[in-house]
Amino acid sequence: MKSIDLNVLSRACVRNLTPYSTARDEFEDEALIKLDANENPYESAYNRYPDPYQKVLKQEIAALKNVNADQIFLGNGSDEAIDLLFRAFCDPGKDNVVSIAPSYGMYKVSAGINDVELRLAALNDDFSLNLQNVNDQIDGNTKLIFLCSPNNPSGNVMNVDLVKSIADSFEGLVVIDEAYIDFSQFDSWTSQIDEYPNIVVLQTFSKAFGLAALRLGMAFGTPDLIRILNKIKPPYNINEATQNLALKRLEDISEIKVQVTEIIEERKMLSEKLKSIKEVEKVYPSEANFLLVKFDEANKLFNFLIEQDIVVRNRTNQLGCENCLRLTIGTKEENKSLIESIKQFYTANT
Description:
It is globular, with a radius of gyration of 22 Å. It is of the alpha/beta class. The N and C termini lie far apart (60 Å). α4 (55-65) runs parallel beside α10 and α5 (78-89) crosses α6. It has helices at 6-9, 12-15, 23-26, 55-65, 78-89, 106-113, 131-137, 160-169, 223-232, 240-250, 253-275, 298-307, 332-348, and strands at residues 72-75, 96-101, 117-122, 142-148, 173-177, 199-204, 217-220, 280-283, 290-295, 313-314, 324-328. The chain folds into two domains: 6-251, 3-Layer(aba) Sandwich (Aspartate Aminotransferase, domain 2); 254-348, Alpha-Beta Complex (Aspartate Aminotransferase, domain 1), CATH 3.90.1150.10. It has 13 helices and eleven strands.
């Protein structure tokens, strides 16, 4: 099993930090009279501060994901967990992180906000992981490696053996962003946390769970890692309404599975329909709820679709994505309208 000392890896200021202590930290039982937190005493659904560590919600997530509750961090979207990883482990102006490219744009944003150098390791032409490119970017000040799998915007899963090779040799944290794992046939890396304590897995309620508006993200790691993130997070980072709505949604797992199945079926259908259009140069294989598609005259098509009140994501300026649009899988009706509009564009321009 891989060995790593997270206290040594973390920043000195984080190690020496005395975290803010909330009233709920000091008294966990249900008191009859609560005069500790300067709340409005008149009862409503939300006049009291929420559980700062979301214990009930974490128990439900733990059962669903087959992990322990102390291996879970909940953030205001996965973006909060990403930012906290920078703040916990990267000294500004000194340390660096590595990300595959192309990939999710928030790694670059968080790096910039925290004054941490971001080094890009280009993927192969088919968007598979290039181990040599990753290793070439690592030095003694590299603290984090971000691997998005299934990757955004390409939709493919990173090779398991190559990821293990990185985790085995790297002395920092390997962050595997699994925002789209529920749409994939491959297993989550959450099952590998005990064997690889330097792996951090990110997931979200925004995609398969259909709760994007709530902004609720999950990070899975060792209890030591979770303690560090809890130490530096805002005191009540997940509000009571979000916790309650997430718990309610977890009661509908069967419905979620039905929706995921339908999205996967629509992904296959949309891919086949797109391949039948001669101006479509390539439809990349996807394990996510979107397709990356290379079109003839992608920028013009993108603007045309906007005129039809259809918004897709133009990825043509990302590395390796020239003339590519990323298409989220919609409902049957939405996907049908998308195909009809694409055909209309090419018919009008031939």
